[in-house]
Structure formats: structure tokens, C-alpha cells
Write a structure and sequence with these properties.
The chain has one helix and ten strands, in the order αββββββββββ. It has one domain: Beta Barrel (AOC barrel-like), CATH 2.40.350. The chain is mainly beta. It has an eight-stranded antiparallel barrel with strand order 1-2-3-4-5-8-9-10.
Length: 155
Amino acid sequence: MNTRSFVLVMAALVVALPICAQTGGCVPVGGVLMTNVGAIDGAYNLGPVFGDLGGSVAAKVLSSNPDGTFTLQHYWVTSTGATILFKPAVLHPTYPTADTNIVAVPWGHYSSDIAGGTLKYDGATGTINYFGMIDFNKATLVLRYSGTVCYKQPQ
């Protein structure tokens, strides 16, 4: 192998290394999602997700709790067809106006824990945090998301 071929092979390995490293270990993720509130049977939110976990998301309110919080279940499918499973999440809402149908979601008031999934999310863990606004009058929700996905180490 001549020097030029060796350099090209080494350069290809350096470029491929970060891609291979994502099959195990933790990576930061972020993006935005938006849903129509009550889009399915008046019970499930549904809408697109953009960014690192791009695809679509649905959520259902499981309970309104006595302390003013809400417990929700997320359903997430990426654009590659992988499913991300989540443990139930608790939303600690704030109200920026006198209208309690408008809910603010500051960072730290809403997060969901990953509990595996399919394809590359099989055995994955991590936490996704959210920030945004929900308007129940207009049946709309827009949230930024940021967090970490920890992929199962290859066997």
C-alpha cells in the first residue's frame, strides 16, 4: 500500500469513527415538535417532530393530579420507522395569563424518560426535556426538546 492509499484509508476511518461510536454510548439530541391537541378521538395529541428525533409524536393525558400536575404518555416514531418508548411523564404547568387554557412549559417543568424502543432505540435510555407553550383554546402545542439518548452497547 502506498502512502497516499494509507492516508485515504486513515482519513475514511477518522470520518467513520463518530458514526460508529453512536451505536453505543450517549449522544445529545434536540429539536422541536408541534401537535394538535386532542387530534385523535379528542384524547391524543398528534403532530410532527423535527431535529435529531424527527418523525411524529402523540401524547395522551393519563391523569390530572390533585397537585395541579398532569401525567402523560408519549408515543414517538422516528422518520426511519423506529419507535421510542417512554415512561409516563409529569407536566408541572405554569400559567402566563389569567386564562388557564394557556399553559407555559418552562425548562425543568416537563421531561420524559426513554424506556427502550425498536431498531437503534432497543435498550436505549435517556431523558428528553421540553420548553414551550400549549393553547387549549386553539388546540395547539409547540415545544422545543433537548436531552440525551444513551444507546445500548453493541454485543
